[in-house]
Structure formats: C-alpha cells, structure tokens
C-alpha cells in the first residue's frame, strides 16, 4: 500500500514539489508560531525530498520522468527538474533555519511569514514546472507578491521602503511580461513553451520582441544588472527571514526561470539568435555592473545582492551560448550562486544577527565559528578559488565559451573573480582579522541551532568542486533533457 | 615506504602539523615538539623522494578530479623533489628557530602563527610537486590564503593594510593574469599536464607565445617581478618567523619554482618563439634586480633591507629561466636553492637579533657580532652567499647565470647580473663587516642572557648549508638534467 | 472572440504601449507612493489593453486582470503601512529617514 503511494508520489513529483509547500503554507498560517514552524519545515523537507528523488531518478541516467500529465499544464524538462530540486532544498534549509528567526516577528505574524516563505518557494517551483507562459506568469506573480508581503512584515520600517521599491519593480515587470506574452501569442500562435523550439513562427520579430520582454521581466526579478535598481533598498534592511527568502529563493528562482525560458527560446530558429544576443548583453552588463556595485557596497546584505547580480550574469552568459554545454554550465553556475548566497546571507543572519553593516562582521570568527566558516566559504567561492563551486561554475563557462569561440566570456569570468577578490577578501579580513568594537549581544537560546543545517550544507556545497562528478553528470543530464517533446 | 606514500606524507604532514600545533597550543613545550616533529617528518619524506628520483624512480598521486580531464595531482620529478627537499630541510631549522623566537618575544597567538606557517609549507610542497597547471594554481591560491594571516598577524591597522595589499596584489595577478594564461594554454594544448620539453612546444605561434609568457611571468606575482613586487616590502611588518616563511621558505621560493616550472614544463623550446617577451622581461628583471639591491641600500630597517635583497635574488631565477637554455635553467634552479639557504639564514639571524636585543635598525647592528658571534658568523656567511662570493652557494648560481647569459649572446644581461651582485655587496657586505668588527655595544640588551640554542643553532646550520652546496653543484646538474633533456 | 479591425488593433496597441510606458515612468520616477501605485496600475492596464489589441485569449486577459488587482491590493496595503511607519507617503522622506541610520553607498 505504502509502496503504491510512494510510486504515485514519484509519478507526480513535479506537481507535489509545487503543491506541498503551498499546502504547508495554508496549514501554517492557521497555527501558532512554533507549530507553524514545525508544519512548514515538514512540508518544505517533504517537497525537497520529492524534488531531489525526481532529480536523481531523471538526471543521473538522463531519462525523462515517465509521466507528467497533471491536468494543470506542467512540463518536467531537465532544467526544470534540476533547478526545482535546488530551489526545494534551499527552501527546506531556509524554513528549517527560520526557527531561529520567529522572535523577529510578533507571534501571529510569524506564522504568516512562514506561510509567505513557503508560498514564495512554491510559486517559483511552479514557475519552473509550468508548461506555458500563462502558467509561468501566474506562478511568478504569486511568488513575487508573497516575497513583497514577507518583506513588508519586517520589524524595521526601512524594509517597508524596500518592499515598496520591490512592488514598483515587480508591477512594471508584470506589465512587461503580460505584453510580452501577448506578443508571443500573436507571433507564434500559442503560449505553450514546448512547441516553441519546433514550430514555424509566423511573425518572428513580434515573437522575438515578446520573448525579449518576458526574459527582461523575469531578469528584473532575478536582480540582473542593470535591472537591479530595487535590490539595494530591498536587501539593505530586510529581516533575517525575508533576506534569505529574497536571495536564496526569489533571486535564484527567477534566474532559473530565465535559464529555462532561454532553453525553450534559443533552439527556435527564427528567434534564437536575437535571444542569445539579448542574454549575452544582459549577462555581460550584469557581471560588470554587479561586480562594481559589490566592490562599493558597505552593507553586507547589499554586497550579497550585488555579488548575486554578478553571478547571475555569468549564468546568463552560459545560457546565451545556447548549446547543451552552455546550459549545463548555466545550471552549475546557478548552484554556485545559490550556495554562495545562502552561505553569505545565512552566515550574516545566524552569526551576526542579521546586522547589515560590514562592521557587524568584525571579530565574528571568535563569536560564531560556524557562521564565519560559511561566510568564508562564500567569500572564497565568490573569488573563484579553485576547488570551490564558484570556480567550477566559471570554469564550465570558459570551457563552453571557448568551445563556441566566445573568448570574451573568459573575460567576464576574470572580471567576476577579480571583483570577488576585493569584496570577498574584505569579508574574510573583517571576520578573522578585526576585533569587535563595543559589546555584542549573542543569542543564547537553543533555537539558534536551527540555522546549523543551512550553514553546514552551504559550507559542504562550497567544496563540491573537489569531487563534482555526479554534479556535472546531473547538469549534463539536465541539458540533455531540456526542451524535448513532452 | 613507497614513493607514493612519501609524497603523500610530504603533502599531508605539514597540515597535520598545523592541526597538532593548534590542538596542543598549551603547554608550549608540547606545541613546539609537534611543530618541529611535523617539519622533520616532512623533510625526511622529501629527502626520501630525492633518493627515489636519483634512482630513476618517480611517483604520482591523484587526490581528485575536480574538472573533466584535469586532475588534482602531484608528481615526483627532479625539479620539484630538489626544491621540496631544500625548503623542507630549511623548514626544520625554521621550526626550531620560530619556537625560540615566539618564546623569546612572547609573541601573540604563537600557535596560530606556527599553524599558518605549517600550512604555508604544505602549500609550497604542493606547488613543488604539482603535476599540472591546475594543481599548481590551486596550491598557489592556497599559499596566498595561508600566508595572508601571517602578514596580518600583528593585528594592527598597518598589518591589516599590508595583508590587504598582499592579498589584493597576489590574488589579482593570479586571477587576472595567470588564470587567463592557464585557460588559453588549455585551449591550445587541450590539457594542463606539465611535460618535460614543454606542453606548448610546437603548438604555439610567436604572438601567442609572447602574450602567454608575459601573462604567466607577471601573473606569478610571488616571484616579485616589477611592478607587482610591492607586497614584499609591505609584508615586512610581519613577525620574524613569518618573514622567514614569506621571504625564504614559502612565498618567494614558490614564485621562483612557478617561473621555473612554467619555463621548463609549459614552454620548453617554445620560449624561443617568445623572443620579444623574453628579451623585454629579461631587461625588466635585470633592471629590477639592480633597483631592488639599490633600494635595499637605502633602507635602514633590517626587515625591509632583507626584503629588497631577497627580491634581487629571486629575480635572478626569472632571468635564468628566460634565457631559454639548459644552463640558464640550471642556474635558476641552483639560485633558488642558494637563495633559500642564504635568505632563511639572514632572516633567522635578524629574528634572533631582534629577539635578544630588540634592535631592528641597520645602524644598531654595529659590534653585535662581538656579543653574538655565532649568530653573526652565520649572518656574514649568508651575506657572502647572497652577494655571490666564492665558495658559497650563491657564487655558483651567479656564475652559471652569467655564463648562460653570455652563452645566449646577452652580454648586457650578464652585466646586469654582475651589477646586481655588486650592489648586493654594498648593502650586505659593510653591514656584516660592521657587525663583526665594530666595537661591542655597551647598552643593555632586552635579554641579557643572550640567545638560546633554539635561536642560534638554526642560523649556524643554515649558514653551513650554503657551504655544503659547494660540493653539490655537479651532482645537482646531473640530478636536474631530465628537466631539459626529456626522455623521448 | 471579437475580431478588431487591423488598423484599430494597431492603434489600440500603440495606445496600450504608451499607457504602459507612462505608467512605468510614473511608477519609477514619482516620489509619492500613491502615485507609484497608480503608475503600476496604469502599466498593468496598458498591458491588458495590449493583450486585447493583440487578440490574446480570454484566459490571459482574466489572469492579467487578476494580477493587476493583486498589485493594486498590495500597493494600497504598502502605502497604508508606509504612512503608519513614516508618517508620510513621500519617498524622499523615507530615504531621508533611512539615511539617518546608514549613509548611502557609491553608485555604480
């Protein structure tokens, strides 16, 4: 009996990965904060389990999931399976870690915050599995508004200001997406992504403009520079939970959606070249602008956001190549971005109490060794030190780029790493080589250990570059299963 | 013991040493025993590997495969074995000396200092035995990160700034110059494995070879090639034991080994394709040698003077390599060995002097040899070797360098090497003579009972090593010959 | 589905795009939160008009209208919270109050 249910769950893995967090959210909002946390953590862990199981079953042997007929237009291509697993695991780690942050919110609001976190995760996962642009739009809007709502729940009023900037950016990007959707429908005759690579496009210019608008819209939500005008305000004063959701779920989810959209659009002969150029320009500008912004940042949360922009740029460059090698590199780079973001933001949230200024990291090495290890791991990975996941992602871009004759892509990697030397080095110096000025209050309650899984996982994932065989196999599997027929 | 096991021990023993030193931080006796025992284990294993190579053997271990077709691998070959053995043997003296210094000066966080010195030694061993460019790059980055805390050890604003400069210069050069060169090489050769005879030989045109050579040489900022040399003087505010690591046993030698490996195993005969770059770089390092020796003369702080003096020496390695001749490569390899012995001895002597007398100004050295005869005898011998006076080790290296320069038809390069030697004499010769011959100072020392055996013996033994090389020039030439005469 | 005359459709599309851009510019440049909300709603309306002009299916129009409503609700809620927290609805006041706590960073 149980085996049958498990088989059924495996059969509907994409739907469950999306629905479990949403059901968890519905339940959590009704419960008191600690009970809500237990339910939310259970739901997020269950979703992660389902997603990882699906990824292992599908990507390592490079075999498509057997049945994905859900009646709600889902499509489990390789990139969706890979990135949804990443997102589900990140969501589980963040929600489990949220146990340490519940006191940041008044009691009834804590449950709402947890529910919104799950909604954000479920929304982005839904966007990753959605089969047509309409589904993607609905899921993205759902996730985005949940994140804006979560940010607005922060105790500090500065976060409200950030939420209002996010709202404006999201509102305009929604309008762009809608118009893009209309143009794609008009140009292609459908909004189903799966038909895009194989259909004869009647009005390629309209379709290209539509896809371009859709990509720009989601890239804006991923914080890709120069469309990242909102992230400074949004990250700068966000509460600990919202900054983790914003960076570890929202930005990564949006980037994954962009990469997945590109995997459908680039093989389409009529529009592929235009999409490739758009992505390459966006990626290159994000690398340069994000790196410069991160070097100038004095607020560690913003630094993480800007460094994320630079990393996202590398992923876009990978995707712009359009080849399976490029998409394999893009998903590896997405993982690198996720790991470094979670390690840095997690280290700050759990170790430095979510304090935003760089000075808050002074002497952290003595006060909070695990959080310091996570921040250091993130910094080293951002520098692109060999054997880290950061290096692996960039090396894959270089390999794929050189193979395609895109020599300048190596330049983007160098820029990212050089800037990483400056801001990553600054982080390490503050953590280990400065003494704290003034008294620092440290949380002594047992709940602070809730952050341990996230910190340990991010440190371990940083050194995945040491033995990345299975990871590269999964990435190659994701690329092999992309944009196939349903 | 198999060669593979010995190689593994060489790489792992310093890491274990670092962990033990931290774990056994108190009592200090146990900490120092762990520190010296770890260094000794590394040295014995490295010596064993020299024996293996001398018998025509070799070994290779692969720790991981982090990239498709690229291993994190280490290999025993003559150049790496010689460098590792030299640095590991000197490392034993340094371990004993640093134990003495931290006790005499009541250094803050001595266990941390020793641990990072051990990690720096581990990274240097990894550089010496690296089997390919990727492994070299990994070890090089690890060395930068291991030495960064040594430079910042004092913890004040000056030390932090020096550490930031150190990190920024070395990482920026390695990421901005060396990494692109590595990627380019990978694209050209399809592999990153070091090969006797050069992996680029026959695969590279003149323009590419010129650009690649410049990227590699400048990217290896540890070799202190101008203008990427400022980190060296800036880091001279570090504690003396750390300075021995930076200037004599880890950072500068690692840069020199890197240049040698690039010259011998990446380019080989392809250096002839990069004639414009080799000429330009020889001018740069030749003038740099003279300028560094001249700047050293102007410095009154002994640490800064020795830093610039060491820079002049290490640039000679780059010059020898760029001559693109077997004699040049041999001169460069010999220069690394001689320079490491002499520089470590000088810096240890300066450390002993500072620990005992708290004197760090050159002018204050006058007559100290009369009250610290062993230490300053070592100082004088090491100075003679740095200058290139026969029969000390440095003389042979410089003789080979000048001969190779003349052999390459670059008389002006030989002249530059000669001028640098004279300038080295001017900043070290009178200093040593004054310390030995002037009247003994009359004011009280910081430690009136003088230097302990841990402070004096390593200096004397280090000086003796510079004499020992007198006997080893010929055996070393045949030992190293496989690096320029690859088996077909 | 009602089929529009091609000329009318083009005209409607142009107006819709203009409305979208006007809304976007208003939302991005206005210092007043209420005006920003209005700008976002205008942009959404423009997008909906564009969809209609392009002959998008009803499902898209309905979803778009729903999304616009959600944006409006979120915007109004934020405006109320901002008014409560800062005692005003001008962005300059928010930034000034925030800058008291933390100086601005250099722009890229």
Entry keywords:
heterotrimer, A: 486 residues, mainly alpha, 19 helices, 73% helix, globular, C: 108 residues, 4 helices, 79% helix, elongated
Structure, described:
The complex is a heterotrimer of chains A (about 475), B (about 500) and C (about 110). Chain A has about 475 residues and is an all-alpha fold. Helices cover about 75% and strands about 0% of the residues of chain A. In chain A, helix 3 packs parallel to helix 5, helix 4 packs across helix 18 (about 450-460) and helix 8 runs parallel beside helix 11. Chain A is globular. The two termini of chain A are about 30 Å apart. A two-stranded antiparallel ribbon of chain B has the order 1-2. Chain C is built from 4 helices and no strands. The longest helix of chain C has 29 residues, at about 60-85. Classes of the chains: A mainly alpha (about 475), B mainly alpha (about 500), C mainly alpha (about 110). Chains in contact: A-B, A-C. Chains A and C meet through helix 6, helix 7 and helix 11 of A and helix 1, helix 2, helix 3 and helix 4 of C.
Taking all Cα atoms into account, the compactness measure Rg of chain B is 21 Å
Evaluate the radius of gyration of chain A. 21 Å
Helical run tally of chain A: 19
Query: What is the overall silhouette of chain A?
Result: globular
Number of helices of chain B: 18
Could you describe the largest sheet of chain A, including whether it forms a barrel?
Answer: none
List the quaternary state of the chains: heterotrimer
Number of strands of chain B: 2
Mean pLDDT reading of chain A? 88
- State the end-to-end CA separation of chain B: 29 Å
Along the chain, the helix and strand elements of chain A come as HHHHHHHHHHHHHHHHHHH
Q: How much strand content do the residues of chain B show?
A: under 5%
What value does the average pLDDT of chain B take?
A: 90
Outline the low-pLDDT stretches of chain A.
none
What gap, in angstroms, lies between the N and C termini of chain A? 30 Å
> Order of strands side by side in the largest beta sheet of chain B?
1-2
What is the count of distinct domains of chain A?
Answer: 1
Biggest interface found: A-C, 45 and 54 residues
